[in-house]
Every structure is written in structure tokens, then in C-alpha cells.
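Troubleshooting entry. Yesterday's outputs looked truncated, so today I'm pasting the complete records for two proteins to confirm everything comes through intact. If either block looks cut off, that's the bug. Protein one:
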Amino acid sequence: MNQQEPRVSVVIIFLNPGANYLLEAIASVRSQSHVDWELILVDDGSSDDSSAVARAAAAAEPARIRYLEHPGHANLGMSAARNLGISAARGRYIAFLDADDTYLPDRLAHHVAILDAEPEAAMVYGPYLEWYSWQPNAAEDDRVSPLGVEAETTHPAPDILAAFITSGGHNLPGICSLTVRREAVAAVGGFEPDFRGCYEDQVFLSKICSRFAVHVTGRCLDRYRQHAASCTAQAALTGEYLPGLPHPTRERFLRWLQAYLAREGKLDAEMRRAIQRELWPYDHPKAFALVGLPVLQTKFALKRLKREVIRRSTRVRQPSAAATAD
């Protein structure tokens, strides 16, 4: 294997996930059937034992595992942490994995084979497993996320982005299910550091999908751990993220997307209409309350969501410290 230029670089960012989660994520990379990889562990200012775990992994295999952190061991957010890992990546392809998620053994091999065979595709993604069964007596059964688009197909730009928008934010791939060509990541400038927390992955996806063709595979090769300390679960408790309902983070994303596409010369009439439809509840909140979703129903839905997150938290082993990267 060429240690200087591995075929794929895996970037794991972490913030206090706890040693066990991070060890499982690292082990899932080490167990890949595709062996031409490097692993970049990016510490976003952890204060738990995960920093020591990452340093030990890098010390054990320095030729293929590296540990990075921000100056002063700062916490700069998921986007900045991913960009730090990307800047150090040497692989032709870049794959992402959060510290509380895991790959199945053929994950890298399958994605690398697709990108090798589909030179017009800048990225490949597939469905992920909503992984509840990692815990004993799980409250829910595992299920595979919906794709919402045709699988085993390379979709031209901006078809995938249009599908994401018109789905209302549903049917999105998890960050753990993306593999991207390094030159494509560089061409769009990586992740946006101004987005911290939820939707940082959607911002990156939008930049890639508005410019490049994307291949969608139907194989589910990633396990997205469901637990109450995740970024999305915590954001749901504050009201910043409400799946299926209008919420501040989605509004900010949509307004950013509209401005970004206009700046890049990619906001055609169809895309403009699609974004404006999604922005309608935010631009006309009173009308939305009357004809879209009554205010009381929205409040009750939020209360139910918060109760569900709290209920699950009593059934799930907590990480050792603050919320992990989503």
C-alpha cells in the first residue's frame, strides 16, 4: 500500500463522545475489507478520555492514523473540525465518520469501487441504518433510512439538491454515508465554519450537489447511532431543530442556500420556486398557522418530541460528557 497517497482518507471528528464510542468507530475503520486507507482523528476540544484514546490510536499506527486538534485545544465546531481533517487528507477520496457511528466492513470498498468506475460522479452516498440495537432493550427497532431518489444511478447536478429541497429536509444522507473526491471538496471550499451544530452537513451537501453529479447506491453500509446526547436530539430539546416542522435552523439554511446559489449563478427559476415554497412558512407565519399547521398543533408536536427525547434518554447509556457530533 502507498502510505504517502492512500486511496481514501477517513475523517473522524469528535467532541466528548466517550472512549467506548470512539474506540468502536476506530475499530470499524480498521476492520475494513479495503485496506488502502488513512484515518484522521480531529479533536474539537474534548475534555473527556476520548483525546487520550485518539492519541493512543495514532501512536500505535502513525503511518496511517493521525491525531489533530485546533490551536489551544479549542472547540471551533463540526464544520471547522472537518475542514481541519480535510486539509490534512492525502487520499484521492474523503469519507466521513462521526465518533458515535460505525462502518460495516465493506463500506470503503463499495464506495471506492463506485467512484473508480464512475469518473463523472464527485460523490457517492447510500442509506444508513438508524441504529438503536447497539443498546440492550432498545426502545425502537433498527431501520434503514429512505433514499427518496433512484438508487444505483449517477444523478446530474442539481437533481439531487432539488430532491433534498422538495423533500422538506427528509431523505438526506447521513454524514457517515458520504465519500467525496478530494478535488471536489476543494472546489467548493469544504464545510462552512459559520454553521455550527445541525445542518452543517446539509450546507456541504448543497455545495457539492449544486455543482457535481452524485452517485446513489442502495447498499446500507453505515450505522448511525441513535441516542439522546446526539447533536440533533439536543437541538430538538431547544427547538432549534424540529423534524417535519418549521424551525430556526432550517430557515437559516434555506436563506443561506438561496444566497449561495444566486452568488454561484445556479439559482434558476425552478430552484428559486422550490426554495421559496420551503420558505413560505417563515415568510408568512400567520398564514401558515391558519392553513398549514395550527399553532396549537405545532406546540403539541414540540412537546411530544421533547417527551420522546427525554424518554429515550432514560433507556440509553449516556456518553461520558457533552453532546457528540451528529
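Protein two, checking that the full record survives here as well:
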Amino acid sequence: MTIQSEQCDQNPKVIFISGRLDTASSSEFDVKVHELVDGSADIILDFKDLSYISSSGLHVLIQAHKKLTANNRKLIIRNANGLVSDVFKMTGFCKIVTMEG
């Protein structure tokens, strides 16, 4: 998994994720997302190049979503495709967060 982010002084913050978000990589993802969750901006996660997400990855997203909404901010998922989009639909996750693209 690769994590890249746009300049941190922008609102919302955009994080680009590629590869697989699974048990092996979810702790690294958790650290990055929670660094941004503790800030003051909305967060956009661009999943255009994410090929797989496991329950560990979903757990990180749910925790981030809860923290953001408690502070009147949003978690936005952008460009989820293929298997990732299917997982969001099957789990109902797409009804919890804002999905774009």
C-alpha cells in the first residue's frame, strides 16, 4: 500500500491510497488518517488506485468517520472502484460516508 497526501494547508485534506488496504497495512493507514483527523479539515480519501480493502481497513475508516462527524467534519471517499466499491455496497458503508466518483 502507498499513501500520498496533498499539501496539508488545504481544506479538505486529500489522501491518495494505492495497492491493498489489509491487515498488514491498516496500522500505517490508521496512523496517517488519524494525524489528519486530529486537524481541522474534512478528509477526502481517493481510492482510484486501491485494489482491495479488508475489514481492518473498514475499521479504520469507521473510527475516522466517527471522530470527524463528532467535530462537524466529513470523511469523503472518492473514486472507489471494482472490489472496493463492491465491499462498500455489501457492507452498507456507502450509506455511512459521502461517496464521490
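Both blocks look complete. Sanity check on protein two: Strands lie at 2-5, 13-21, 43-53, 75-78, 98-100.
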